[in-house]
Design a protein that fits this description.
By secondary structure, the chain is an alpha/beta fold. The protein contains 13 helices and 13 strands.
Length: 386
């Protein structure tokens, strides 16, 4: 904190600086305020980034992933151009096996315009089926666990606190306007109902017709009521859910938001019934990227120990077929690839996983422990269980 020049007079913008006596920072910074430390944290090197990529890829293949949509650009301490150059190198030399689509995090319109006029405009990726450019990623709020998710009402267990607005509505619109004018998809991190409402306001301002041709979406979309979900459906906005978050959040959501709002949150089944385009992911490394454990939570709404027995608000449990669709065709739809992948059928990419258990015949609770015997991408066996 001292090296960064953060003291009792430092203003918190887009996050919080937790304080002790005499307003002195106690060492806990949240959301955008973490960036105040960036100038004094050693930058990750190209060698370190390459090692991390290979380790992460090997793990992803071992749990049966064939495609990822990842926010690694603009987030990890390497400048954007260097990150793109490294990933192009890895895929050019054959190291990259996963089908990899970038989400790009830009802090301001200048960074976004640099990306649009460089990588996006020049089309430097010549392996569209392995390495592809994707949407702008925006962070509207924080997390429920940290009480930084942006709510429309005070936290039930923290009066006066409604969470953190990581980016202002106007700045968010400015970024989204530049992206939309360039034909870029937008995906926004929004956990609290206040954040989700603000993101919908922004999307409706961008596209008053509600047709959503760019397939803009909301990542997480956790705290919702029925009218908010109906509005998402009407606007044809995509939802990128992480059912695995229930493992921890079911322990806190009623205390944070009250039972009524908790009962309509993490509304996986309702979203399906409303016809909202839904996909599943894990937000790794916040959670393990293992898809089986994510599917297990979606169909049982239980934690890793099998509790609660009948599931957390079990009306929101989804059918196994719907959970698999969210992971496959739903994710392919996110990236405009639903005619090329997400199904095993003629003319589609030969990406598949062979599991050690028939998940359609086993007890739903057993899905948690299912593991891949083999992962195949483009007809090539890229992982085989020893």
């Amino acid at each position: 904190l001292e090296i960064s020049g953060i003291d009792a007079s430092t203003e918190a913008v887009g996050g919080t600086i937790e304080r002790e006596a005499y307003s002195y920072p106690n060492g806990i910074l949240t959301e955008s305020c973490i960036s105040l430390l960036s100038p004094v944290i050693p930058k990750i090197t190209e060698k370190e980034m390459e090692k991390a990529f290979k380790l992460a890829q090997n793990h992803a293949l071992s749990v049966g992933l064939t495609s990822v949509q990842s926010n690694d650009v603009g987030m990890k301490g390497m400048v954007m151009d260097d990150t793109f150059a490294l990933l192009r190198k890895l895929y050019a030399e054959g190291t990259g096996k996963l089908r990899y689509r970038h989400q790009v995090c830009c802090r301001n319109t200048e960074e976004l315009e640099h990306y649009i006029n460089g990588e996006l405009k020049n089309g430097v990726y010549n392996e569209p089926d392995r390495l592809a450019l994707g949407p702008l990623k925006i962070f509207k709020d924080g997390s429920l666990g940290g009480r930084t998710a942006l709510l429309r009402r005070d936290y039930a267990d923290d009066a006066g606190n409604r969470g953190v607005e990581a980016i202002s509505d106007e700045k968010m619109y400015e970024l989204c306007r530049v992206a939309a004018d360039a034909g870029m998809q937008i995906v926004a991190h929004a956990i609290g109902d206040g954040a989700i409402e603000a993101v919908l306001d922004c999307y409706e301002r961008l596209d008053p017709t509600g047709s959503n041709p760019l397939r803009n979406g909301i990542v997480h979309c956790q705290i919702t009521d029925r009218p908010l979900l109906e509005r998402i459906a009407e606007d044809k906005v995509l939802i990128m859910y992480q059912p695995v978050f229930l493992d921890y959040d079911m322990q806190i959501v009623e205390a944070r938001c009250g039972r009524e709002l908790a009962s309509t949150s993490y509304a996986f089944a309702t979203a399906e019934k409303l016809g909202i385009p839904v996909s599943y992911g894990t937000d790794a490394p916040v959670e393990d990227c293992n898809p089986m454990r994510n599917i297990y939570r979606a169909v049982t709404r239980r934690d890793g120990t099998g509790k609660p027995c009948f599931g957390f608000f079990p009306a929101e449990c989804v059918e196994l077929e719907d959970a698999l669709d969210a992971y496959t065709v739903g994710s392919a739809y996110n990236e405009f690839k639903e005619s090329k992948k997400g199904r095993i059928k003629p003319g589609f990419l030969a990406d598949m996983v062979v599991l050690d258990t028939d998940i359609f015949r086993c007890d739903r609770g057993a899905i948690y422990g299912v593991v891949p015997e083999m992962t195949v991408i483009g007809g090539e066996v890229v992982y085989r269980r020893k």
